[in-house]
Amino acid sequence: MNTLQVLGLCALPVLLWLYWRERSTHRKTTAVMSRALKDATERLGHDDRTGLLTLDMFEAKLNEAAQWADQSAQSLSVLTVAIDNFGLISNGFGETSAADVVKLAAERLVACADPAAAVCKVATADYALLVSGGADASTLLAQRIKAAFAQPFDIEGERVNLTCSIGIAVYPLHGAQANIINHATLAMRSLQSSGGADYCLYDPKMGSQAREEALLVNDLRQALQRGHFELYFQPKIDAQSLQVTAAEALIRWHHPTRGFVSPVVFIPLAEKYGLIGPIGTWVIEEACRQAHGWADSGLRMRVAVNISGYQMRQDNLVEFIQGVLAAHGLQPQRFTCEITETVAMEDTQATQLTFEKMRHAGFHVSIDDFGTGYSSLASLQRLPAAELKIDRAFVMDLEQNEMSRSIVKSIVQLAKACNLRIVAEGVETTGQRDLLVAMGCDDLQGYLFSMPVSGNELQKMAMNRFSANSAEFRDSLYATSFMNDMK
């Protein structure tokens, strides 16, 4: 054995020791890095504010759960939960309190669910839960969540009642794993659009309904530009003389392929998708333009326009109406703002400020659909209202239903106590007319006297001095001074 061989044999243990130490260090470093990566992943997979899973982590767990469900022939469910009308909390109490509500709601969801459930924060006030089991298990969980949300939330010392809408989709019953969250969300949004505060299972029909709604909204966006809207006018009748004294403007949509689309269908869509503002603007401008045209022909008649809750919350609504009236040479008292009772009773600063501006501007204010809300004598006295309109639901049952008659009598008495005129809408029979006159109603409106007609048709009726049902137009409408019309 030569010298080099001896040196090689002596160095071998040292080399082996160095190799072992390097491998040991590598294993330790790898373990530390793996733990750090796992910790970072866990942190990134959870929402900082609520501690709930992020959507990415939730989808990863859903993928694992779906594989388990496929292998075991079991079901799993996804529930999506949204706090109803969360914007009111944010606007009314501020962002900090709204964030506290989001955290409190998350805690209630976790408390309702099984410890094995995955709970995720999807958006600001939207959540998702992944649980094992099918429709029976998920609906029981939805009931617990609904009951938990029914307990008041403490917001800045105020006990505030909130509701939530819950959509449920079951895998594999309601579709592929890739679509299950969307299907649960679709069920939840469909529920919210009809009032919310409940839970519902996904139905395949919801997809076609959503597509139909999307198409209709797209057409609605273009309807103004393409001139598909038209105003119709329904006369208001003095209850004593049975003469026409004013008219309410009612929007109509003539769709090029669908034909007539009811306001019952498109107005809620306009409110839901932020289109009610421009539509409301068009109605005000068109109603004033039509009133100006009537005036040029010698007919000076008050016109009423429905004002939405969105418009009432606009800072410049009154100034805008004043500008349109001035542009068409109309006096403020010839313009009636019809505001639903629900909107009128909103105790928001913006709404109350608009009412105050209306008072100073001299507008004629009418509280529409009265009897469906929760007005009190004190709240009515604070409003600059000149009249109340009894909701047609009470008028419709007037002849057959004693309860409806009692309600109408109470509304009339309330109006008289507040020195307000009382208008009954939806009058369709002579029996209804006679009962309303006997109860003391001041004005009537409905098919008994006239269907809603175009502005030109109403002008022709006025020029002929009567409508199809022989409701004469008051002489003072033809006077040169509108002041006579106030008699």
UniProtKB/TrEMBL annotation:
Pfam families linked: EAL, GGDEF
SMART domains membership: EAL (SM00052), GGDEF (SM00267)
Ranges of residues in domain GGDEF: 74-204
Domain EAL, chain residue ranges per copy: 213-466
UniProt superkingdom: Bacteria
Family annotation (PANTHER family): BIOFILM ARCHITECTURE MAINTENANCE PROTEIN MBAA, DIGUANYLATE CYCLASE DGCP
Protein name: Diguanylate cyclase/phosphodiesterase
Originating species: Rhodoferax ferrireducens
